[in-house]
Sequence to fold (217 residues):
Amino acid sequence: MSKSDDLERIIDSGIVAVMRAQSGEKLVDVAEALLAGGVKVMEVTFTVPNALRVLEEVADRMGDRILLGAGTVLDPETARIAILAGAQFIVSPATDPEVIQLCRRYDKIVLPGAFTPTEVVQAWQAGADIVKVFPSDCVGPQYLKALRGPLPQVRLMPTGGVSLDTAEEFLRCGACALGVGGALVSSRAVADGDMASIESLARRYVDLVENFRDGTS
Fold:
């Protein structure tokens, strides 16, 4: 698929599941559970031990059934090895122009992190496809609405503080997609191997986004 197709896939999905755990050994199963629940876009963060190997395993097992990304990417070197391992998009908690440039070189989607209006504009001007507003739990949905006022052209994805209780309000305030971490892929569920609860939660998030967009929520 082309980069534009992948971007459309993220926006259509509305959810980017953040897979972060103390061990990577169960994350392929987590990816399967997320997909079974309807979540088709997910990232493996580089805080996971042996994250590169996990990326490769998820990419090999899941193929094009999902759109797989790498998260917590802090430098262009990590971005490159993640892309070579199968990552189709790159997410960072901050904005590094060299990471954005590397992603553009490989024609991959990049979601750099930003917080203030100045940082959001700088990330967008540097070539972000979507700006990850992080950490959103410190400010909530109304902050996203405030950013969208003067910056309606910028695609914003809140990450941090997105839960079943706040997701609809983030969407109402202009989020193009939601970055959902521990509220969807909890460390407890991963450690216990409770894939059924992850699948169930994934389905609830998918239903919430679909209902909001259909106007039935």
